[in-house]
Write a structure and sequence with these properties.
This protein has 387 residues and is α+β, with helices and mostly antiparallel strands.
């Protein structure tokens, strides 16, 4: 794929004998800690070993020419006219990155870029953050902007929030930008304190199962859940001196939940508070090589997302139910925003093929179409690829 992206840039925009540079950015999967990031809580993602490639060649004018080999859409714009346009679809992500860099005072130049990725679009594996980070890292390197990586991560989140209009937390961009091969990232989202935890899975593999039910973050109930959490927090703040739900302990929540007058808001807040506890327990379990305990916490996480946060739905629940019928699966849960997208399961290595066949068959019988399966390793974060 990398060589193909460079060749396609020459084919589409001409072979001018000028330097073409190649960048890569992975997708991510969150192992545990869902809908906690925008609540200032803990998350535990890792980067996948597949992602997005971007070949880039600078121009001497203000034109920005963008092509994706995954979509039949070429976009041409100018660094002097960076506005969101629905018909530009995926290209709004790189355009958003350009806009926030410009707003920060960085001098940009025109360029030609060709993207190709193998992250399934709309699956909740952060294809959007992958496109943002590969664009940001490329421009940072090619134009010598000297922006440190965490600042770059924050700018990419800002692009998605303010330019694209998705009110996402920091986790996706952080994971994609800061990922490290064979490690997961233990991250506190309000302070951005983080550490790398070795992903010793003791003979188990990460298998991602895609419901193949498309969901769009903007038109899902994502923003509704976010405002429900803010509302629940406003009631708790009458007694607690906290800035976000991620700062509320389980004990404090039990003591003060009576302040929240709406049962639905209680459930939303309870998910966030208990999910934070589960992340802490899961990281400790992994450090102690207790992979079975880690799997148990994944299952509890899914149950909370189903019952308290209500973001799973028939497709995700079916994938998890089918996975947990198998005694060689120790954990399975939805990952990402929900309402479709993917599950992540821990499957005994020698039974991965059985898992794929049995779960696919059970899902298709109940849902009417097949899921897609990805057996993944844990790769590096966004970077330049040099020959």
């Amino acid at each position: 794929m990398p060589a193909k992206v460079i060749e396609q840039l020459k084919s589409i925009y001409g072979d001018k004998g000028e330097e073409i540079r190649l960048f890569y950015s992975p997708g991510r999967v969150n192992l545990i800690g869902e809908h906690t990031d925008y609540n200032g809580g803990y998350v535990f993602p890792c980067t996948l070993d597949f992602g997005t490639y971007m070949a880039i060649r600078m121009r001497n004018d203000d034109r920005v020419l963008l092509t994706s080999l995954n979509f039949d859409l070429k976009v041409e714009t100018s660094i002097n006219n960076l506005v969101y346009d629905k018909k530009d679809d995926w290209a709004n992500y790189p355009k958003g990155v350009l806009k926030v860099l410009q707003d920060e005072g960085h001098q940009l130049k025109g360029f030609e870029a060709v993207f190709e990725g193998n992250i399934p679009n709309g699956a909740g594996l952060s294809s959007s953050a992958s496109i943002e980070l590969v664009t940001a890292v490329a421009l940072n390197e090619v134009l010598n902007l000297n922006i440190d990586r965490i600042k770059l991560v924050k700018l990419c989140q800002k692009a998605e929030n303010t330019f694209v209009g998705v009110n996402c937390g920091i986790m996706d961009q952080f994971a994609v930008g800061m990922g490290k091969e064979d490690y997961a990232i233990f991250l506190k989202c309000d302070t951005l304190e983080y550490s790398y935890v070795p992903l010793n899975l003791s003979g188990y593999k990460i298998v991602i199962s895609n419901t193949n039910k498309r969901r769009g973050l903007q038109d899902s109930k994502y923003n509704e859940r976010r405002s429900q959490c803010e509302k629940a927090l406003s009631y708790l703040k009458k007694e607690l001196n906290v800035d976000n739900l991620g700062q509320v302990t389980a004990e404090e929540f039990e003591k003060y939940k009576y302040l929240i007058p709406d049962d639905v808001l209680v459930k939303r807040a309870r998910h966030v508070v208990t999910e934070d506890e589960r992340v802490l327990l899961a990281v400790n379990a992994l450090k102690n090589n207790d992979i079975k305990e880690f799997g148990k916490l994944m299952i509890e996480s899914h149950n909370s997302l189903r019952d308290d946060y209500e973001v799973t739905g028939k497709e995700l629940d079916t994938l998890v139910d089918e996975a947990l019928k198998l005694d060689f699966v120790i954990g399975s849960r939805m990952t990402g925003a929900g309402f479709g997208g993917c599950t992540v399961s821990l499957v005994k290595e020698e039974y991965v093929d059985d898992f794929v066949n049995i779960v696919s068959k059970g899902y298709e019988e109940k849902i009417g179409y097949a899921p897609s399966m990805y057996v993944t390793g844990v790769g590096d974060g966004a970077k330049e690829i040099k020959e």
